[in-house]
Amino acid sequence: MKRSIVVAMLGALLLAGCGTITASQSVRNWTKQANFASNTRTLVNDAKTSVGQLRSATTAAPVLHTVCGVLLTDTEAANASLPSPDTQANNWLAPAYINLGAGANTCYNAAGNPRLRAKAIAYLRHGVAQLSFGALRLASATAGP
Questions:
Q1: What is the DSSP string of the chain?
Q2: What per-residue confidence (pLDDT) applies to 13?
Q3: For the whole model, what pTM was predicted?
Q4: For a Cys-Cys bond, which of 60, 99, 134, 142 suits 92, CB 3.0-4.6 Å?
């Protein structure tokens, strides 16, 4: 009987040790599963392309529909991976994706309207800035053991 208790206690200790994961490892796992680095590069490039097209007054509606539609699709895909295990990163990333999506939607309707073009650019610039802060926070969160 004593032997059974000792074996059960050792088994419980082993199982408890198997489930331990650090916060930094949890964030590293999430960034890998969410393809965060690749998605972030894609979003920044999409936003850059959209801003370039928005700044050109001669860009036709079909071109804006294409570049802004791609940006919206990529933003929605990145947003679908939230929440991350890091609350502070979420506080940057969620609004970043909201602003990028708002910029894409505004961009889609901005052909021939300089005011909407400027508004879309402002959304995109703000979204990329927030995305950068979110990425910095994730880098900081993964720096631990």
A1: -HHHHHHHHHHHHHHHHHT---HHHHHHHHHHHTTHHHHHHHHHHHHHHHHHHHH-TT--HHHHHHHHHHHHHHHHHHHTTPPPS-HHHHHHHHHHHHHHHHHHHHHHT-TT-HHHHHHHHHHHHHHHHHHHHHHHHHHHHTS--
A2: 47
A3: 0.85
A4: 134
